[in-house]
Each structure stands twice: as structure tokens, then as C-alpha cells.
Amino acid sequence: MDDFETIYIGSEDPDALDARMLCDERQIYLAAMTGQNAQHGIASGDLRGMRARFVVARNAMGEAMGCGAIRRHSYHVAEVRLFYVRPRYRGLEASLLSYLEEQARLLGYHTLRLSAMRAERGASRACEASGYRRVPADPDSLQPGETVCFEKPLGVADTWTVTPATK
Asked: Domain for residue 163, yes or no?
């Protein structure tokens, strides 16, 4: 677990090589777990908006460990997408999810949602351990019956603070 001693998580271009590799690995992992084509199209433009983020977690050597994204679902609700941690870095999910929560809070969202395939046990465990509650699956889900949905209210961040003048 030496690679966990220093973790850098930050916004990156969703079309960068490491980002594309992580997303491709996620699709292959889900396909292997479910036996189905796991391609869930998400336009990179959806991750470039003012109220969206795509992040990559890296170790001290700069190796990409995992990724995740938030994008607008509705004005006050963001959804987590493309959530993935490479198998050798399992255990990083809670830290990555916490970072995405903070980003969503800073962007003014009040609630964060995450939909995971039942096969994505790491994502489900991270959600449950981080205080998310299960909610009914979206009826427009790409794979009804195979999707588990979670939701967590976020404390809204102060966008500015007034400091009283001192004499």
C-alpha cells in the first residue's frame, strides 16, 4: 500500500490518454463482470461544462490509479459517472468519492447521485460506507434490474464569507 501514502486527485482532460485508458479499462472490467457490452456513452463535452468535472487520482510516481466524473443531472443534483479504480489500487474508492463530493459541493450541488452496475461492488461499498442511501433506479436506466442507485445530500459550501471589519 505504499502507493497510497501520497495521492493526488485533480481535474484532467477527459480526452487525455490516461483518462481514455482508465475509461476503456472500466468498460472491459464491466463487460467481464456482466458478460455484456458495458459501453455507456457519455460525451466528453458533458464533462467540460462549468458545473462538471473529470478527475484522475495519481500516486506519487504519477501513475493513474482511478478516475471519476461529476456532471449536472438537474440544477441541484449532480451525478457521478465513469467511476473506476484500477484493481491493484482497490481501497481508493472512498477517497476518490469524497473528492468528487467536495467538487460537487463547491459547484453548488445539493445532492450527489451514483448509479452502479450490480457487478461494481467496490463502488457500492464505497457509497454505503460514505453515507449514501439506496434509491429506486431511474426508469430510463440503460440496464434496468442491473443498476443500483445511491444518493447523498451534500452540505452546501459557502461561496463567500463576510468578515467583519476590525478597528
From this structure: no
